Amino acid sequence: MTGKRRGRTGRGWDAAPPRARRPRAAAEQQPSSTDPPEVRDPPEVRDPAERAREICLRQLAVRPRTRAELAQTLQRQGIPDEVASEVLARYSEVGMIDDAAFARAWVSSRHHSRGLASRALGQELRRRGVDSETAGEALAELDSETELATARELVARKLRTARGEPQALLRRLVGMLARKGYPPGLAFRVVKEALAADERTAEVADHLDPDAWAADVGDPHESVDREPETPA
Questions:
Q1: Which of 142, 157, 188, 191 is most buried per CB count within 10 Å?
Q2: Which positions ≥6 away from 190 have C-beta within 8 Å?
Q3: DSSP 124-190
């Protein structure tokens, strides 16, 4: 005998699925014109000069900047040119922007930390908007004897762990110095001296071809050792 079909109990596997809740109407989700002032988001109206000052302060808090770097940042942020000029002029007057001090610090820091020579440092300063006269004064503090000593230190450090045939070592080491901005003649001389002083390569150092490295290095003016830019 077939029993009566039992109704759903409301529990267990045969329970009816829950009814979906109706979403609130758009009018209920958005604040209306009758909402109190603190609920509504009024459009932001700010003084461009105030925005420009805040942008500059945030940039300078990360690292020193040149006037040209700050001007580019303000332009990207939509600050009117006349407002940007006034703010930057004021910051220059009070010493918060000082391209000469920036250039001197940049030359000292990048030479000692990365071993860059004058030519590479000059390129970096120009990319940051430092004018030629200001850059030249900063680079004048890096004398040729200091550059020579740094080049020798760079080569000696690399040579301690380098492996390969003398001609291959010559190409790699001269190429390394060229990318850091050292003149080709100085680079070859420093590397040849280092190879002559190393017992592994001393016997063949005098016979190394000074032109053998040129094809591998390419144009040293286009291959200066660089570091990634700090995001603005």
A1: 191
A2: 148, 151, 152, 155, 177, 182
A3: HHHHTT--HHHHHHHHTTS-HHHHHHHHHHHHHHHHTT--S-HHHHHHHHHHHHHHTT--HHHHHHH
Query: pLDDT tens digits for 108-142?
Result: 999 999 999 999 999 999 999 999 999 999 999 99
Name the residue type at position 94.
Answer: V
**200 Rama sector, left if φ>0, alpha if ψ -120 to 50, beta otherwise:** alpha
Mean model confidence pLDDT for the chain: 80
Q: What is d(CA 227, CA 224) in angstroms, rounded to the nearest whole number?
A: 10
Residues ≥6 apart with Cβ < 8 Å to 65: 59, 73, 97, 102
DSSP class of residue 35 equals: S
Residue linked to tokens 């000052």: 53
- pLDDT by residue (tens digit) across 178-221? 999 999 889 999 998 998 888 787 777 776 666 655 545 544 44
Q: What is the pLDDT of residue 20?
A: 54
13 burial (CB, 10 Å; 0-12 / 13-18 / 19+) is exposed
